[in-house]
Design brief:
The structure is a homodimer. By secondary structure, the first copy, chain A, is an alpha/beta fold. Helices cover 38% and strands 18% of the residues of chain A. Chain A is globular, with a radius of gyration of 24 Å. At the A-B interface, helix 2, strand 2, helix 4, helix 5 and helix 7 of A face helix 2, strand 2, helix 4, helix 5 and helix 7 of B.
Chain lengths: 515, 515
């Protein structure tokens, strides 16, 4: 058994069941080892951003780390932006990064030599470089342990090629993973008391407590105490829609957030940080907690947030279930042009239960949500770190976790172009993913932001940097070029027909929705 | 004048004439400032890898830095792999990276907050974060100075949004850039003496001395002394073909290099590092300088390498021009299937003079070169850092430097998929670039490397990770989807007709050459 085989067996024994890879020469022994480990699946992606985004989507749906397989420093570099998103979303990922053999690393003139520890360290919570083949298995157990530390970490193991090809002894047994910390009963009691003090209160939820058990407990608390339930604009996964308590989304823009939070006297943080704006703007606040509003913490992100909510509900004697969302069946929009609101309405009408919705829809997003939040129950996975383009890669990873669930990836045209290679993996793996590209032929968010940041007297060079009209991207051809069936919808009628068809059939599909 | 305006004017006054950008909100003031600076052009790219690769291509053709405009830490992350290539090729690039306003940076919970200095520092030779709007102009002059330090550096300026939007005073004047160091005459004399000592000698050339003046001087030296002229397999720019002295390419694989260098008793390094293999392999050497062969240094990369070659030629009394390449017009290949050799032959027959050839053709490359090196004179820009996919992005930058020259980007199908978004910028800017994708439906280099690294007993999971057949990429549709005219050639006759047509017309064009 060589080092790579000892590593693949160790990862699999430690519960890593899938490897998203874009390998090169230095990873060949790892790739060869996949065939000797039936517990691990290998999924090829054509770009490292897809690898990282897929691992993020997989983690959001399972709570478990996938492995990524990346090719030296530059390969890791291509994964950084979506690893950043995963890290911001507190998702576990195990990165395996091949590097030059230790014997080769003394030659900086080798083209692929790099400061690999600096590149990998820039976005990793845990980082280690294997020193010898005999230590690789132990390192493999440790990287999984590090990734699974609550609430989820980016853990990176740099694997020099000779530590992969030299002889090793045996796989290493899994290392224990600490359960998320239990919130102290004194904290529960303190928050319970605060919820009875008559102040206008909101619970701000983040992370795994936004899945159904946490949302149910939060709903009971809200029902009993009158507290509002909030989630950040960008949240890794929210289970919502029919049959679940509604958690309100904090708006995107500073002035909207201020209005939204106005009057709150206390905010209880459940795995969440105090709300701040996405960007700073001249003469606008970044800190948006109302003046005088107290911030209380029920649970930190590495604690059992759902358990804390359940304990809090019990402490309040909140026996009644929360008010739940009744599905609103929006009217079918009149025949006419498409916009975000009528796309959302059509989706909310026609979506089956239990969709996984990967959302990177930027300016379209707000319009879409008006109907979707009262639609059928679904898991909603949103861009968490601001590195756009991850809807389709996340959908790859999410779809592999749940072959019986329909996955929808929705993005803008600008954002879709960062990681379009995900479509090829959808075709290769026959994933049941419908990708919707809302094509407004612009980086439209920047047209909005340009005014908001106070930039004035915009000339043609400036406006050209925000515009995608010349030439217009043809997402139908782009999708077909990667083996994905595709169609274009320019009217509500066309979109409804195409979306209905996509919901009824299985397999990868793209709809370019021209808005 | 705000900080961004002071920066744009300063960059332009310092000789930065073009900005390749993929901006976001934090870069809006910089973008707005472009309209007030007629000396700077803005070019929009749809992915940061294209931004970095274009800046690399621009630098290789001009010796000058372009600016890149990147969006916070994740945006820089997406540029790392091609910045790595540029750095390995010693190219100057000025990166302007927007970041959160300083006032916002105390909120780690903001989605786009990151360890931006770590991300940028991992591949930058020079790095600074602006502290206030009034200092931005001075920082701008310094970042250009740093980038232009010989032989060319990756210089990165992090621009917090408030330092861009707050009031500044004025642009800063350009700072002096030291000319490359002059090689001491004692060194010239020592090498001249070595070239007369009767030992079997090669000159190994790197960097700017591989353009015509340096190659001409090297040719005189070779003619006079009998020394061989060599260049590394991956070199940033070589002017070659008809009318120039031939510089031999060191092979890719270790055993081929050993054979190629066999018998050499001294190697004179001209800006080059001693040759090593690209990767290490079990039981093969990384260090390939023959045993007992002496390594002498004529010039370091930051010295005037071309001047040193000219001085050496003069010191040798080398008045005769070197032996120059006479163009070999290969026979038109018989009608039949395409392979790398007959693609190269057709190109060498039909290429006009003065093509800029951006080459990321991986396994096809060796076959192509058999004819191309004896073809019409051209500049050949090769992947320098091993991060594949940069042919098309480099072609974007190169084409913008020379609107009267035909640019050809040639890549494999695997490599083309890393940065296909470059095609859109070619269409938008009406660049005269012909992109050739040699589609072998595989990561073919890995099929070769798998055996060479000693991986055995390959099973179906392993082989699938190297294969691009399922589904087959359709580069004609992919190009058309980005507004680039495209065609597919499956035979020599088809390829010859399409390539001839592409050479005669202007504007972006893609040919998928199925091999």
């Amino acid at each position: 058994m060589n080092g790579a085989e000892s590593l693949v067996h160790t990862l699999a024994d430690s519960g890593v069941e899938i490897c998203f890879g874009n390998p090169g020469t230095s990873e060949m022994h790892f790739v060869a080892a996949l065939d000797h480990e039936p517990k691990m699946r290998g999924v090829l992606c054509l770009f490292e951003g897809v690898v990282a985004g897929a691992a993020d989507g997989y983690a959001r749906m399972t709570g478990k780390p996938a492995a990524t397989l990346l090719h030296l420093g530059p390969g890791f570099g291509n994964a950084i932006s979506f690893l950043h998103n995963a890290r911001k979303g507190h998702q576990p990922i195990v990165n395996i990064v091949g590097d030059h053999a230790i014997s080769h690393s003394k030659y900086p003139q080798a083209p692929l030599s790099s400061d690999i520890m600096a590149i990998c360290g820039s976005v990793s919570d845990w980082l280690h470089q294997c020193k010898s083949a005999s230590e690789v298995a132990g390192d493999g157990a440790r990287v999984v342990q590090a990734a699974r530390a609550a609430p989820g970490k980016i853990a990176t193991l740099v694997l020099p090629a000779d530590t992969a090809w030299n002889q090793a002894v045996a796989p290493a047994p899994p290392l224990p993973v600490a359960a998320p910390g239990k919130v102290d009963s004194a904290v529960i009691d303190r928050i319970a008391a605060a919820l009875k003090n008559g102040k206008r209160t909101a619970l701000l939820l983040w992370g795994s407590c936004l899945q159904s058990a946490g949302v149910d407990a939060a709903g009971r608390i809200a029902q009993q105490s009158g507290a509002r339930l909030l989630h950040d604009y960008f949240t890794p996964r929210l289970t919502r829609g029919e049959g679940l308590s509604e958690v309100e989304r904090i708006p995107y823009f500073a002035e909207d957030i201020v209005e939204f939070l106005k009057g709150l006297e206390q905010i209880v943080l459940v795995g969440a940080a105090p709300p701040v704006t996405f960007f700073a703007y001249p003469d606008k606040p970044s800190w948006v907690t109302p003046e005088g509003c107290e911030l209380l913490t029920l649970a930190e992100p590495d604690e059992d947030m759902t358990g804390a909510l359940q304990a809090l509900a019990d402490a309040l004697g909140a026996k009644q279930p929360g008010r739940i969302v009744t599905r609103v069946m929006p009217d079918m929009p009149q025949h006419g042009g498409l916009d975000a609101e009528n796309i959302g309405a059509i989706m909310a009408r026609l979506m089956p239960d239990n969709v996984i919705l990967c959302d990177d829809s930027i300016t379209c997003g707000r319009g879409l949500q008006k109907s979707l939040r009262y639609g059928p129950r679904h898991d909603w996975l949103v861009l968490t770190g601001g590195a756009i383009g991850d809807a389709a890669p996340m959908a790859v990873g999410a779809a592999l976790t749940a072959p019986d669930r329909k996955v929808i990836a929705i993005s803008g045209d600008g954002s879709a172009m960062y990681s379009l290679q995900a479509l090829w993996t959808m075709a290769r793996e026959r994933l049941d993913v419908v990708t919707i590209v809302c094509a407004n032929r612009a980086y439209n968010i920047l047209n909005i932001e340009m005014a908001r940041v106070g930039a004035r007297n915009l000339g043609p060079k400036t406006l050209a940097m925000l515009d995608l009209h010349d030439p217009e991207l043809d997402f139908v051809k782009l999708a077909q070029g990667m083996g994905v069936e595709a169609s274009r919808a320019e009217t509500t009628t066309e979109f409804a027909a195409q979306f209905a068809d996509a919901m009824q059939r299985r397999g990868p599909r793209l709809i370019e929705a021209v808005i």
